[in-house]
Amino acid sequence: MSMNGAGVFGKFYVCFKGLKDGFLAGCRPYIGVDGCHLKGPNGGVLLAAVGIDPNNNSFPICYAVVGRETKELWGWFLTLLKHDLQIERDYEWTFTSDKQKGLIPAFETVFPTADNRYCVRHLHGNMKKILIKHGDMVTDCIPMKSTDQHYEISFNNNSKCKVDLSNHTCSCRKWELSGIPCKHALSAINAQELNPEDLVHKCYTVETYARVYAPCIYPVNGPDIWKKTGQVPPIPPNLGRGVGRPLRARRLEVDELANKQKKVPRGNKHGGRMKRQQTTIKCSYCGEYGHNKKGCQKRKDAEAAESESEEAIYLKPERGHKDDIY
Questions:
Q1: Tens digit of pLDDT for each residue in 273-292?
Q2: Measured between alpha carbons, how far is 182 from 137 in angstroms, rounded to an integer?
Q3: Key word Zinc present in the record (predicted)?
Q4: What is the DSSP letter of 8?
């Protein structure tokens, strides 16, 4: 964790020893890196690096929290990753990303000879399903033996592939890239009456899977019982001004948006205005509940009685009587 002189949070990097040792014990030299914006009150960006375990599931390696995505911060993250995994020959490694901001220039600086790929689809299924799928397609392949370890496979009429069982290679290159025998290799393996699972790469074995998850991450106490360092708590970073004109009005709720746009919700008979529900009305005149001052009957009776006492009602007198004033 790093802070500047004013105590403002700069960046934070975490790589547990159990994850690092497990990745180095049996995972393939393949790493995917990505970043996402944090939605908390302090903002920031989460950077993460993950690998693939022997069961083709994601295996977390490390993560970091930074203020924003820049070339310098991505370079700092990749440099620590390279140091933790002790990567010396980066040309033997493959990295996958989705072209985050500053990530490509950082790769060119930290891993100049590594193989970079961009994520365009999900990883294929596990090894067993692939073998079954390839096994169903073996019926279209005709093996022609050259030596005990070399075969020429004919398929789709005029198409041919060369298979080398000793080096676990096929001219279609699927066996080399995935570590799982392709349909051409399975045709040669069946001709030799061998077990296909014995020729699968060792990264798919149960022993390798056990080595990957053998290291443990020890439990950590909650933040309420952490030891106090006596230092001033860090201040959230200044994220700077975002793109576009800043918002001045507060964010409206869902019901407010419906009222503003004059959208009538389903079952609402009051137009765009929302009906007040589950509220108790108290009269400010008499203090009783259930009505307001405008509809108060006591106020109406009092006003009527007051008007009768202040006004004189003149009635037309009958013949032979004097005018009576009431």
A1: 555 555 678 899 998 888 88
A2: 9
A3: yes
A4: B
